[in-house]
Amino acid sequence: MNSFGHRFRFTTFGESHGKALGCIVDGVPAGIKIDEEFIQNEMNRRKPGSNKYATARKEGDVVEILSGVFEGHTTGTSISMIIFNENQKSSDYSNVKDLFRPGHADFTYFNKYGIRDYRGGGRSSARETAARVAAGAIAKLLLKELNIDVKSGICEIDGIKAENFDFENVSKSEIFALDTNVEQAQKDAILEAKNSHNSVGGVALINVKNVPIGLGEPLYFKLDSQIANAMMGINAVKAVEIGDGILASRVKGYDNNDQIRKNGFKTNHSGGILGGISNGDDINVKVYFKATPSIFIEQETIDINNNEVDCKLKGRHDPCVAVRGSVVAESMMALVLADMVLLNMSSKIENVKKVYTKQ
Ligand SMILES: Cc1cc2nc3c(=O)[nH]c(=O)nc-3n(C[C@H](O)[C@H](O)[C@H](O)COP(=O)(O)O)c2cc1C
Ligand SMILES: C=C(O[C@@H]1CC(C(=O)O)=C[C@@H](OP(=O)(O)O)[C@H]1O)C(=O)O
Predict the structure, then answer these.
(1) Closest residue to atom 17 of ligand 2, CA basis
(2) Cα–Cα distance for residue pair 199/195, rounded to 1 Å
(3) Measured in angstroms, how far is the CA atom of residue 237 from the centroid of ligand 2?
(4) Could you give phi then psi for residue 23, rounded to 5 degrees?
(5) Which of 14, 111, 157, 257 is deepest in the core (most CB within 10 A)?
(6) Which residue from 236, 227, 230, 331 is spatially nearest to 289, judged by alpha carbons?
(7) What CATH code is carried by the domain that includes residue 324?
(8) Structure confidence by residue, pLDDT tens digits, 279-293
(9) For the complex shown, is ipTM > 0.90?
(10) Which ligand 2 atom is the nearest neighbour of the CA of 61?
(11) What residues make up the domain containing 271?
(12) 211 located within any domain
């Protein structure tokens, strides 16, 4: 069982080759209009089997809401949602039943638990991220009420930077014509890797607009630490950068500081976060996905009895997980922000009084 969040909480259940996956979202205020078409559209943006850049496993990823919604609005009780698996092909995994795929979670799951659902990696499969996107859609509906807008896009695939995207200088560029705009050279790199039975990695950029000042709980639940935790919890994510990230360690203070005028910050090197608290500027976060571990080139590994063996995989895999992963990262950002919005309501006595005293 995984749990996430303080006020706006969610947990997911299910395995990739089991009967179903789902989530429970708790702490959602009553009265939010639930747009089921919006939720399904979010699911469709992530779902597998939609194009040649994704795994061929075809799933409808249709979400059924089981609780917490009445006459189209949240009731303040926990919202549970279920997504039935339709297209498991577990026979693809029969030859890796007793061996560990390099780069996947097989080795660590088996050593930690002594038992492993080898079918698609079970719980370690990113199929679980479907449930996160369902939960994230509820968070987005809350954020929509506050006009907070979370978007994502691909800024790099296999080391190829998006042309319209000034990756080295995020804070000055007009980057946010986003929405998973994978450019042609990047698409070609994905197909080239796929055709040579290999895979590529990539970087997604998450941008949030209309962020109120004050989100984030110092000192131990800083907004940036919560975002990093959420992003690093996504399968295949190996690094997270807030704002200019690594670049901030390479430039001088004068060039990194965002100077302030009465109508706002002149630049946004910080990624919209200072002292763990949102400063009202856009939040910009880059999420680095490694190349898909399951590839179709023969590799060396060991089996559960420590014998050295060759590993030749079958099945259906994403040649580049960053593309669909960007939607997951966007959902995780929405979940963190929804949580922080609710937590922040009690940061000042004026806000508490607004709720508890008659106006
Ligand atoms: C959206 C998405 C799709 C993924 N698809 C695959 C896949 O088809 N095959 C695969 O081996 N790994 C895939 N992964 C990555 C694995 O789930 C991940 O590498 C594995 O669980 C090991 O975890 P780690 O890479 O975080 O250490 C995907 C990840 C994401 C986010
Ligand atoms: C099913 C999804 O992606 C899966 C993620 C995944 C992995 O190892 O993470 C491996 C593949 O699983 P399978 O071999 O069972 O098809 C992908 O297809 C999904 O995203 O919904």
Answers:
(1) 317
(2) 9
(3) 15
(4) -145, 160
(5) 157
(6) 236
(7) 3.60.150.10
(8) 999 999 999 999 999
(9) yes
(10) 21
(11) 9-356
(12) yes
